[in-house]
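<instruction>
Derive structure tokens from the sequence
<data>
Labelled lines for chain and fold
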Amino acid sequence: MTCLAEGSWPLEFKWILNDTEITAFSPEYKYIITSLQRSDAGFYQCVVRNRMGALMQKKAEVQVAYMGNFVEGDQKKTVSQGKAAVLNSPVVSSYPRPEVTWFRDGYKIIPSGRIKL
């Protein structure tokens, strides 16, 4: 992330994550995350100061995409002809939420007036 600022030098920069200071003031105007983790998600702000005062920039949200493991295995349901079959989506921890595709006998189920996904 880059904190752009103009003013009398020397400018010093400090970074804040979720209202907690994560760096001290320094001349470095960039904040680099070398190995992004889920815990790096949140609201970042930069504070810029010089001998005249300090300015806090607007918050910028960082979201970290990840995909957890599927918890459940196969689902099998038997229903009487003409009755509704309700299948539950598998539980998976992720961001953004995954798109689920259902299959029957190896063929993708296409939503229609009869089938709602």
